[in-house]
Amino acid sequence: MEPLDQIKSSIEAAVSGARVEIIPNAGLSGQHSLLVDNQHAFAVARFLQDDPAFRLDYCSNVTGVDWLDAETSEKVKVTKVVDGVAKEVEEVKKTRRPGYLEAVYHLYSMELRHGPLIVRLRTENRTDKTHLPSLTPVWRGAEFQEREIYDLYGIVFDGHPDLRRILMWDGFQDYPMRKDYVEPDDYEYEPTAHDKVLEKAKRHHLPEAKP
Amino acid sequence: MSDAVVDETAHTASEASLLSTPEGAGQPNYAIVPKTSLTGEIEGELLEVAMGPQHPSTHGVFRMDVVLDGERVVKLKPVFGYLHRNHEKIAEHASYLGSMPYTDRLDYFCSLTNNWAYALAVEQLAGLHAPERAEYIRVITAELTRLVNHTCLVGFLLQDMGASGTPLMYAFREREKILDLFESLTGARMMCNYMRFGGCRCDLPPGWLDEAKDVVGNYPRFLDEFERLLTENEILMARTQGIGVLPKQLAINASITGPMLRACGVNYDIRKVDKYGIYDRFPFRVPLGEHGDTFDRFMLRLLEMRESLRILEQALRDIRPGPIMDPKAKIRGFRPKTGEAYGRIEGPKGELGFYLISDGGSNPYRYRVRPPSLINLTILEDMCVGHIVADVVVILGSVDIVLGEVDR
């Protein structure tokens, strides 16, 4: 397959207004990915499926990833006037990156036998704006996997034909695969609670201590 | 003669006593609904049936909510999650190596291919390479696993069709021989936990190769016997040909993989496409189906077993002594660099993939299994609609699912 920057430019040429960003993979596998904006994701998916140069007709794997709010600190050199003399001082600049949920699609081509092209979609945040366009109308193989992401991560796929919980039961409230999920501990009942179990059981009696 | 006359009188007498209306009995207290309409056709309404989760032919705790018109299937919705234990979350809390035994429990028929897929993904993540002997051992064990899986599948499929006992017992007899090989190699018959990142856990015991050659050499005879018994059987053909046809385009679009896909005539075998491990060294053919029906899926497994035997013969002949672990591989304090990797292999049921994200810690930040069993069920409804209930069982059997992997 072509290098990623060429794929990026051909996507941007074909789908007007699409914003594509290359996400480098720092690891040894060399599987870099493309971040596509949510408004044009569906059109990009159709293009990747239909274009004779790509023909990515096979959506192998769809998965969710939860990224919590993170604080990155980097050292920046700043010139400051100290005692009337301009000096270069190193300062730690902290940037706060809000968390988001991510859906990752691994695309292959059965016809041309190439791949994977990894496409990522990101939600705006982790709390209320967790909508992404569903790519199930393009690749039906994503149907159960997107349902699973909805079930375990809470990403709502707009345009999915049958978006219900798949592994957890219908009345279940939380999203178990999120990093900040706290499992219910009421099943850890012991007749004589002690140590850790006692500490955990106290949370049920103190409502403000609940997460 | 006289006896018969006496009997007849006795019979009529008892019938008369049954039919005689007791004192005080009136009209029945329920409405009698006529079963036929004025035109004489049977009128009925749609019936919703939950097949499973405790149904003998669903191969585990799997439910199909089927809507029936008479005996025809109108609608079918699969329901999962009875065996869900959130394997992925557990793996995020365990070390990389700690998840290896747990991968055995995904598809408990094929623990060695599960091990290989996971090891392959971690090796891509950490930049490890298994030495040549380990690659040979992996190919040998994986192809033996494929034999086990396909043999059992054919046995179970016939069992579902009503050939009670015999084919399944024949299949299990052969499976035992391979499980004995696994036991002497790994110490376990099903939960093998054998592969490691950058190699295998232990070397082959003395004499193992000869035993394996014996099993592989005798296998074609069993396959011939199996085929003579089954393939030209008229009942089997009537029950499978033209049942559950899967169109080629739909199969590709719905991410169907493995024997299911190849039965539709799509030439896509990851052993050939990715050439992972050392599969490029062995010449073998990829059998393809023509019609995409249940019979093709059944036959394709039999043909794939013959190709697996061909690979096994070559691998058992060519394997040479040598190290079985990458010297760079660390057992303790294993922390891959930050990054992500997706590794996939051609499992017996389809593409088995593992997607890992590392944040530099000792346990994966994200661990994802791409389960072929679950994704192959996407088109179950499309294949079943229009067929009768008895065919649903056969179609599901030919999809080849294991619930440990579907629900994870």
Task: Spell out the blueprint of helices and strands.
The complex is a heterodimer of chains A (211) and B (408).
Chain A: H1 4-14, E1 20-23, E2 33-36, H2 41-50, E3 58-67, E4 70-82, E5 85-97, E6 100-108, E7 117-122, E8 131-133, H3 143-152, E9 156-158, H4 195-205
Parallel strand pairs in A: 2-7, 8-9
Antiparallel strand pairs in A: 1-2, 3-6, 4-5, 6-7
Chain B: H1 2-19, E1 47-51, E2 63-69, E3 72-79, H2 87-93, H3 100-104, H4 111-126, H5 132-161, H6 166-186, E4 195-196, E5 199-200, H7 208-230, H8 234-240, H9 248-253, H10 259-262, H11 270-273, H12 294-318, E6 339-346, E7 351-358, E8 366-370, H13 372-376, H14 380-384, H15 389-399, H16 403-407
Helix pairs in contact in B: 4-5, 5-6, 5-12, 5-15, 6-7, 7-12
What oligomeric state do these chains adopt?
heterodimer
Q: What spatial form of chain A do the alpha-carbon principal axes imply?
A: flat
Q: Report the sheet with the most strands of chain B, covering strand number, pairing sense and barrel closure.
A: 3 strands, antiparallel
Order of helices and strands of chain A: HEEHEEEEEEHEH
| CATH hierarchy, class of the largest domain in chain A | Alpha Beta
- According to CATH, the fold-level topology of the largest domain in chain A is Beta Polymerase, domain 2
Question: Number of domains in the coordinates of chain B?
Answer: 1
Beta strands of chain B, count: 8
Q: Specify the helix fraction band of chain B.
A: 40-55%
